């Protein structure tokens, strides 16, 4: 319920700072000629938002770790390929 007595309506933010974030606002806001109050409240609490950000950060750290392991694997694989080539060349030299 808005402070003006009208029912609050659920809306979606379209700002750069909070794109797609749900909030409650006066149902008369932006209605031509109707008085409205400045009632505003995020639909999700700051705590819920913080928890979601922590989940995202954990996922990013996991992906960063996975990427680092993949890069290390590729480096090791390339080193192994070079060693195999050296062994092959050495074997050919020994045969001749």
From TrEMBL:
Molecular function terms, GO-annotated: zinc ion binding
Coiled-coil segments on the chain, per record: 66-93
Source species, domain of life: Eukaryota
Keyword set, alphabetical order: Coiled coil, Metal-binding, Zinc, Zinc-finger
Keyword Zinc found: yes
Domain GRF-type: 2-46
Pfam families: Zn_ribbon_GRF
Name this polypeptide is given: GRF-type domain-containing protein
Organism: Carya illinoinensis (Pecan)
Organism lineage: Eukaryota, Viridiplantae, Streptophyta, Embryophyta, Tracheophyta
